Amino acid sequence: MASHAIFGLLVLCGASAHAPPRGRSPEGPVLPTHGVVGACAAPAARPCGVCVVTDVDDTLKSSGGWMLGGIALGGVDSSFSRGSYYPGVVQFELELSLHGLPPGQPPHDAAILTARAVELLAFLEIAPDSPLCERFRAAGAEMGCEWRVGDVLYGSVQEWICQERKGARKVRNFAQLAARRRAAARGEPAAFIFCGDSGWSERDEEAIDGISQTRLLSAAFVHVVSDDWSAGAPRVPPDRTTADGVPVAHFLTYPGAALKAARLGLLGASALLRICASAERDATRDPRNLPAGGLNDALLRTDLAEARAFAACAERAPAASARWPAVGAADAGAGKQPAADGDASPLLPAR
């Protein structure tokens, strides 16, 4: 049944069974850096800062829980309508990219790891002029910096049919991304922070564990989603640390994610407040998904209140302890750049 659905989708989209899609390598459909961004010359060396690596569907914006022949088209989340961005998500990823940078140093471009099939790029490509990429550029411009989506690495139809392969594919794509960024940074690797979702549950957690083994990951943030909100919000799994010492934080809203990032020393108080303001602004513009008094509105307001209370305390006592104090503790202190907004918490180093 699943294979019939995929075949029908390929026919519908006009995919050719003979000509390999653009970007396909001899080893399989691993896409290089897309479009104009991939053609740019290597940037100047950036020995500090992080590259935020993000999923798209159910992480940046909702898949709506659409299904075809029993197979999810991008994700499972039914709490927001398909294509709707989660409040505060872009500002959250931008602030992670800016934290700890010295004055005047631009942030690393964001990178995307997505399960979207490379065979269907004619319909699913995340192009440099897409609305998604424009959101990233606009957020950077509002903060007075150049920030954009850089590398985009895709999955394939194979993972749609055999979904147990999704985790391994993301691990391979991350390794490829890390190699590119090392070369672009002239031999000085940046740390990475991964933002994903719980839509594929065990496979997503396995992917995070696999990526953490590269010892390049500083933290992972997992947006908890569900295809059934009839009984209320889904249970949020406990935060954990991988076998390689990488903190993994689970959350329902992006102010909630920002609060956990601040506790980890990955955001300062001012950044936390900016994310809250962005989320509130986004919510005001989206009454369809966040009607007053609805569940999404209530969850957001709860996390906004907690995040702002934490920021108020942090501004009075900036040296707030991290939730996982052992992570990066040995690297704190001499030689570390303070955060741009005055918070003294060190950037968690790559392992």
TrEMBL record:
Signal peptide (from-to): 1-17
UniProt keyword terms in alphabetical order: Signal
Residue stretches of biased makeup (Low complexity): 321-344
Protein name listed in UniProt: 5'-nucleotidase
Superkingdom assignment: Eukaryota
Spans annotated as Disordered: 321-351
Keyword flag Transcription regulation: no
Statement: the UniProt record of this protein carries the keyword Signal: yes
